[in-house]
Design goal:
The chain has about 400 residues and is α/β, with parallel strands linked by helices. It is about 45% helix and about 20% strand. The two termini are about 15 Å apart.
Length: about 400
């Protein structure tokens, strides 16, 4: 049996699992690919938890077992589950120390290096002293817990360039992957892309943002980009899709600028709807301040959308590797607007960037990245069983 530990919260009530759609899709793929009994473990979702694409699934219809772990729950059942596993795979709930204690091999999924962890956990701390103290604690945990756990892992699946590079000297058994929900069939076709680009000069440039409306995602800056672009005379319209703490402020900014006809802040929609809608846009505006491995990048590429965004360490490297967008100074709204102006004014530039985005998405579809990961899991599992004989 393989135990899979996930950081994404879930809840179980009256025989119904409420969980993120992306997780469930991934688990179905794991069940089909690995042919092993799978149990997934999640932290308990709080009543306040807001997921962007949550679904309800009857527990008795799942091909995998589920365990929910609350903050005050007895951890012995979780430990017993790990002890009975041939392999533990995943991220969160400090499962690594349990696996080490039980002598069970584990594959870590790692996403955030030290710099990104500090940005994530201090972005809404305003006191310089509190920010310093929190950053020091994060660094302590990183060096005393995370890195030793990474060193002892049978393999580390690194989601994104920053963490892959950060662990180079810690553990040579690393796999780089780029997370996405885009299957090959979901990537925009050449015909669709050509059709969209045909009438560029006769209409506004259509700008898209999707994701959490939170400071880490630069949600307010995205709206400011739209407002500034219009004030500078660019022919653009912007739509954002998501939810979060900054939704009200985003809408107030648009209203106070008198631009509700050109900029619309929508609520979150399901992922299948978002895929369909994205194909009607031209550029994805990305003001992420964290160097996270967001699946947003590849999913925008899958719609044939080049990205104009802040040069966090993930986008800076991805921009270099793909050639499918523009990377500008962090926190510089006007630099993003300048990038949009270049795309709108330089003949053929949008067509070239859009084509590169599509090609990169095709070479890193969910299917391709998933095969890399499952092949690596099977390799570790085979090694573990050979040793135990």
């Amino acid at each position: 049996m393989i135990t899979m530990v996930h950081a994404n919260p879930a809840s179980l009530k009256s025989g119904v699992l409420r969980v993120d759609r992306k997780f469930h899709t991934g688990m179905l793929a794991y069940c089909a690919a690995l042919g092993e009994g799978l149990t997934t473990v999640h932290p308990q979702a709080t009543p306040e938890y807001v997921g962007l694409d949550m679904i309800d699934i009857p527990l008795d219809s799942l091909p995998y077992a589920v365990m929910i772990v609350g903050p005050e729950d007895d951890r012995r059942p979780f430990r017993c589950l790990i002890e009975s596993s041939a392999l533990v795979y995943g991220i969160g709930l400090s499962f690594e120390s349990m696996a080490q204690a039980c002598g069970v091999p584990y594959v870590m999924v790692a996403e955030l290096d030290l710099k990104t962890r500090i940005v994530v956990q201090t972005s809404q701390v305003h006191s310089a002293v509190r920010k310093f103290v929190r950053a020091a604690r994060i660094a302590w945990d990183y060096f005393t817990q995370f890195l030793p756990d990474a060193k002892h892992a049978a393999c580390i699946h690194c989601n994104g360039y920053p963490i892959y590079d950060a662990l180079q000297r810690v553990n040579p058994k690393r796999l780089l992957y780029l997370d996405s929900r885009m299957s090959e069939s979901m990537v925009v076709s050449c015909e669709q892309l050509r059709g969209r680009l045909l009438n560029l000069r006769s209409r506004p440039l259509r700008l898209l943002f999707s994701g959490r409306y939170e400071p880490l995602k630069g949600a307010l800056d995205v709206v400011k980009v739209g407002i500034s672009a219009i004030r500078r005379g660019l022919r653009v319209e912007m739509h954002t899709y998501g939810d979060g703490s900054q939704k009200g402020e985003m809408r107030r900014l648009v209203e106070s600028a008198g631009m509700t006809a050109q900029i619309t802040v929508h609520d979150a929609i399901s992922y299948p709807e978002l895929v369909e809608i994205s194909r009607g846009f031209d550029v994805f505006v990305c003001c992420h301040i964290q160097g996270d491995p967001s699946c947003t990048y590849l999913e925008a590429f899958g719609a044939g959308l080049p990205i104009v965004g802040y040069d966090n360490r993930m986008w800076r490297r991805l921009c270099q590797e793909s050639g499918a967008g523009l990377s500008v100074r962090m926190h510089d709204v006007e630099a993003v607007v300048g990038g949009l102006e270049s795309i709108q004014s330089q003949s053929g530039l949008l067509e070239e960037l859009s084509s590169r985005a599509r090609e990169f998405a095709l070479s890193h579809t969910f299917d391709r990245e998933f095969v890399k990961r499952t092949d690596a899991i099977r390799e570790v599992l085979a090694s573990a069983r050979a040793v135990s004989r």
